[in-house]
Amino acid sequence: MKPLLKEFRRNPLLWLLALVPVVLVAAKVAPAAHTLLFVLSVLAIVPLAALLSHATESVAEKTGDAVGGLLNATLGNLTELVIAMAALHAGQYTLVKASVAGAIVTNSLFMLGASFLLGGLKYHVQEYNRAGARLHAGLLLLATIALVSPSAIARTDLAAGAVMTQKLSLGLAVLLIVGYGLGLLFSLKTHREIFAGAEQAQAEAGEPAWPIGLALGTLAVVTLLVALVSEIFVESVQEAAKIFGMSPAFVGFVVVALVGGAAEMTVALSAARKNRLDLSVGIALGSASQIALFVGPVLVLLSYLIGPTPMDLQFWPGAVVMVFVSTLVAAFITSGGRSAWFIGALLILIYAVFAMTLYVLPPQSG
Amino acid sequence: MKPLLKEFRRNPLLWLLALVPVVLVAAKVAPAAHTLLFVLSVLAIVPLAALLSHATESVAEKTGDAVGGLLNATLGNLTELVIAMAALHAGQYTLVKASVAGAIVTNSLFMLGASFLLGGLKYHVQEYNRAGARLHAGLLLLATIALVSPSAIARTDLAAGAVMTQKLSLGLAVLLIVGYGLGLLFSLKTHREIFAGAEQAQAEAGEPAWPIGLALGTLAVVTLLVALVSEIFVESVQEAAKIFGMSPAFVGFVVVALVGGAAEMTVALSAARKNRLDLSVGIALGSASQIALFVGPVLVLLSYLIGPTPMDLQFWPGAVVMVFVSTLVAAFITSGGRSAWFIGALLILIYAVFAMTLYVLPPQSG
Amino acid sequence: MKPLLKEFRRNPLLWLLALVPVVLVAAKVAPAAHTLLFVLSVLAIVPLAALLSHATESVAEKTGDAVGGLLNATLGNLTELVIAMAALHAGQYTLVKASVAGAIVTNSLFMLGASFLLGGLKYHVQEYNRAGARLHAGLLLLATIALVSPSAIARTDLAAGAVMTQKLSLGLAVLLIVGYGLGLLFSLKTHREIFAGAEQAQAEAGEPAWPIGLALGTLAVVTLLVALVSEIFVESVQEAAKIFGMSPAFVGFVVVALVGGAAEMTVALSAARKNRLDLSVGIALGSASQIALFVGPVLVLLSYLIGPTPMDLQFWPGAVVMVFVSTLVAAFITSGGRSAWFIGALLILIYAVFAMTLYVLPPQSG
């Protein structure tokens, strides 16, 4: 347990873990205090996500390159996946879809933008591995197209029944997971040298790895805790949103995405401050494409097992536009391989435009 | 006739030509056997397209650079044009438009993707002339915008009468053909050195040229045969589609495009296996832009002569999205000048997404 | 006054200034002669815009780098701003929005295209500062997304009341002006070396600067004259459009944009003929992004002061598509850093496609 205690001293964020039992108890004694439960669960998820992220990396490091890479790739967005599964189980498909779309937008605009901005405030111009960034951006762009195109097209056909959309979504989910598997084969096996720089930087930049037993135990316990807290979060979020005057779309797109991605964001920003933009860009775009190619499709498949009804991949048209524009911008911005603070500021401004628009949306359109 | 016989021995595909008389007879004796006629006509068009392609190249080679380039550029998609004309004559405008949009999508996603994939399975990383590819992709992007923008815009205005849309389509068709002419002037005359590499590779990669008499004779006879078989194909395709459970959109987009482009596809793929990606990219993107800038507009003009009523350039919104996304992806992917197998796999996956979506579409929305 | 007279001899366009008093008198004696007033006011605005542009540059040059750059950036589109203010005051919000969208499209397609075409007719291939162009194009792309995204999204939600859209537009206007301010900080202060080449070229290419008193006086008087003539222009344009058979969308998009940008266009084209494409690209894309990030938002804010009711940022969907496509094309085209005549020709053809489409639009859809 020593490394765990050391981690606690090193990372003051982890003190927030004290809120995990608080929120679990509060949910029992005051199930109607939605605002309180919402705030507590958000604050409790952030340190859990950080622990989860560290545990995953430790396991990955111990298990060797290929399996480790696979683990990192699969569990890297475990927090997002667990939160979305809680929402899926509750039948809140609007929230699930908004959180998937929002995670793509938040990672490719806000996380990338904040990295460029914070890095740029310290360094005049930063360069990063253009080939790697291009490939990452390409994957993301392609993944997004695959994810949003059916929405754009299905939408135009109002006569199509739900059964048809459902069948299509199932087929597309399988197709996307195949694409994700091929992507892993490509980046971990056949062409790993293109991504090598970023991976090595990641290993160096990371905190010291935990022993495997501790890591696996933490992984299991923390995943369970995230699941429990997520359930409370999902139950309270709708009511809390009404009180805060937030639309459901805003909650899913912005709040859930920022909460779920807090851990990765910390790593990406700290890497940017150390002039390791390769790593920041890799985390931001890699995480976005993982959600588009893996988390989203897996949720569709899981909806057959744990959801009240099957979920399809049909998004609200505004979300489709935002996701498509975000990935287009990320692809364009990163194709040059250079950055400065203003690029980051503009990415954040675009994110603010989207957030502002979602904030004023009336409840029914989320 | 010797070179023709030699060609038959070299290319086993040509044995399918035996089906040409079979389908012509079958159409007489069993005009209601739609499925049979559909399958036979598809199988008969493939070798005819290969012959047509070889004859065009032979004529082009004999007539010298400028005229030859012009011929290649004009007759390069003769099969697509003849099939579309048969559909035009039958008043099947939905099929005509789907085949135009589908040929752009199929060339810029499937043909390009298959070239990258097959080439990438043999070579670790392949490089190609970036400047040429950029220019090709630029032409294609611009052509597509010109082709789809009016659809996007005209669609928003429901009050506009058909007369207005028709007038606009006529004007745009003329504009696009002017653009096509300027493009030929640019690539064959004023800036031919940019494209020179790919052209030379094409000449080398090609089969030995036929004597001019044989080539011209083949061109005339085969065009006539394609026209006859296309008529049977167009008549049978709707009924056959119903039996196979395919939507008309799927037939136009996927089946017609693959059948019409089979000959070019063979050349592009074999070039990719020989590490001549310049040629593959040139064929895929060049063919797509030719269809957008030349075949489409010519069909609009021809509809005044051979169609029951004038045809406009207003596409189904889903087709507009697919065409726009395809060319955007092709432009982004080729701007780097490098490829690996995964890029090809993803292009094909996107194509599969589109094909899957079209497959489940209900009949009325094609 | 000597430099002013010298300017008159140098620039025959300025003789059109004689039409300024003519149009002012004509508006008094024949307020119903809409066609005459329209033609006269268009012809009178062109030389006024040229004078305004020269006066602004002279003041900018005298006041030193930072303030000068700020002035140039703020007053560079003064003519467009004044015309739009006249339309704003008359409550013609459709015309205001069309002129904002049209100025972005006209600058990024027509002005850029004409520069490439005219430059390319003289030089085989022209190169320009790729980093600067990329940054300019990036700014423009980002600005446009910020401007059009809310339209695309707001549009999908028919239930949203006008109040909500209005609140959002106000917030976005402030956000965009913040982005514009940060952009100035970036290009004039923290990273000015990236833009240095184009600025220096601009200073050299420009006409000799006027004394500060003359410049300031001209600025004040000419702005007043533009305002007076614009009022006549705005009053007459609707009736004249009907007579010429032009839709209001065409008038705002094409006529107002070309009239308002005539002065900058002259400078950009002459720079292209001198093989100074850095300057041409900078003017075309810089002007477009200034209108998107500054003129548009300022008009929203001004509508609270001088308009009959507040104006929002919700554009007609066709305009959104055109603006988005234009900036996408400009970003793609300029990312290579090379140009030839055909690139220019195609940009102009796309502009012609848009203009043709707008021309045939029925009046109510503008």
Strand content of chain A: under 5%
Secondary-structure element sequence of chain A?
Answer: HHHHHHEHHHHHHHHEH
Shape of chain A: globular
Question: Biggest interface, which chains?
Answer: A-B, 35 and 34 residues
Q: Tell me the structural class of chain A.
A: mainly alpha
Mean pLDDT reading of chain A: 82
Helix content of chain A: over 70%
The main β sheet of chain A shows up as:
2 strands, antiparallel
Q: Kindly, what is the distance between the CA atoms of the first and last residues of chain A, rounded to a whole number of angstroms?
A: 44 Å
Oligomeric state, counting identical vs distinct chains: homotrimer
Please, could you describe this protein's structure?
- The structure is a homotrimer of 366-residue chains.
- With 366 residues, the first copy, chain A, is an all-alpha fold.
- The first copy, chain A, is built from 15 helices and 2 strands.
- A two-stranded antiparallel ribbon of chain A has the order 1-2.
- Chain A is globular.
- The termini of chain A are far apart.
- The mean pLDDT of chain A is 82.
- Chains in contact: A-B, A-C, B-C.
- Chains A and B meet through α7 and α8 of A and α14 and α15 of B.
